[in-house]
Amino acid sequence: MLQLWGKTQGMRARLVISGIIGLLSGFCCFFVMKKFHQGAADFGWAIHLAQRFFAGQNPYDAPYEQYPFTAGLFAMPFVHMRREIAAGVFFGVSSFLLALGMTGKGYFRLFVFLAYPYWVGLFAVQWSTVIMASAFFPLLLPVTMAKPQVGLPVFLTRLSRRGAVACLAVALSSLLLFPRWPRLWLGQMGYYQHFFAILILPGPLVLLALLRYRDRDAWLLVLTSLMPQRWFFDSFILWLIPKSRRGVLLTVGLSWCAGLWRAYHPPSSFHQVGRWIVLSTYLPMLAIVLFRERQEAFEPELARST
Questions:
Q1: CA 107, CA 303: separation in Å to the nearest integer?
Q2: Dist CA 196 CA 199 (whole Å)
Q3: Helix, strand, coil % over all residues of the chain, rounded to 5
Q4: What pLDDT shows up at residue 303?
Q5: Peptide bond before 202: cis, by omega within 30 degrees of 0?
Q6: Can you tell me the distance from the alpha carbon of 183 to that of 99, in angstroms, rounded to the nearest whole number?
Q7: Nearest to residue 258, comparing CAs of 249, 248, 250, 267?
Q8: Which of 77-91, 139-153, 158-172, 255-269 has the lowest mean pLDDT?
């Protein structure tokens, strides 16, 4: 009885703390969008998909609409909101879910919210936060299909039976609603500017993670390096890797090296962005994978039972 009461109290504390993080991040996102007249920033493209669909128009009528129609499905509840409010609600809920998942193994993992890619993602209203949260909740796994180049590594390394069923249901729903979307979406890929971390020196060193091939975090690191990426926020999912207080704090601190460097030396190409991300994020994560204790590497994600 005491054990059950303790678990209930623990869950209440997690919900309260996660709720506070969600509210603060959501308000901060709303304030930034309103202050700088950004609408819903990148999330606006998902809303655009949903709006065009409801209007019976081609959702891919703009060259920079590069999201799959699955992103539009998740954006449908936000269509009638003011863009700034939609951005704040979306990012606040994303942060709440991530905080709830992270606190399943201790509150020290909340330091990931100080990582530079998280804050870049807040200013751009990105999907990486909610995709990272899906690693903890199987029924949330379909959000990995909203931005596949970020979601696929999480999908492949955190796949479960319930998650697979949920993803299949969303995929079939999208095809039933709009059968032509995969062809139209693929036609937009020529406009997507990107880099591959694995191809930017010293990016090939990431392959050393396969020395720990039994560790799914090693595969998360390698798969992410193989995905086309554009900006700093795409690497935020790599904070699923550190499981200790020291590992989280070390990688969070090093991530700001890229932020400080960017402030004084704006990047002139995506290749340059990629090199900074490799140095400030991929290599520290590689060190975590290679040198942490074996027991830590195979800890289960406790939040999956919630």
A1: 12
A2: 6
A3: 75, 0, 25
A4: 43
A5: yes
A6: 36
A7: 267
A8: 255-269
Block residue for tokens 């609409």: 65
Q: Please give the angle made by the CA atoms of 148, 300 and 285, to the nearest 5 degrees.
A: 60
pLDDT single digits (tens) 253-274 = 999 998 888 888 888 787 888 8
Domain boundaries, the chain: 2-305
**Pairing relationship of beta strands 228-229 and 195-196 according to DSSP bridges:** antiparallel
Contacts of 204 (CB under 8 A, 6+ apart): 198
Structure tokens at 25: 């991040």
The H or E element spanning position 52 is helix 43-54
Structural tokens at position 116: 């530079």
Q: Which amino acid is at 196?
A: F
> Radius of gyration over alpha carbons of the chain, in Å?
19
Identity of residue 254: L
AA letter at 283: L
How many Å apart are CA 66 and CA 46, to the nearest integer?
9
The amino acid occupying position 145 is M
- Kindly state the tokens that stand for 209: 């993670």
The residue whose two tokens read 């590497």 is 297
The CB density around residue 199, as the number of other CB atoms within 10 Å, is 13
Residues 6+ away with beta carbon under 8 Å from 91: 25, 26, 29, 43, 122, 125, 129
HSE-up (13 A, CA, CB side) for residue 65: 24
State the alpha helices, DSSP H only, in 134-282.
Answer: 148-157, 161-177, 181-186, 216-226, 245-264, 270-277
- pLDDT mean over 157-176: 94
- Residue 57, CA atoms < 13 Å, CB-side half-sphere: 10
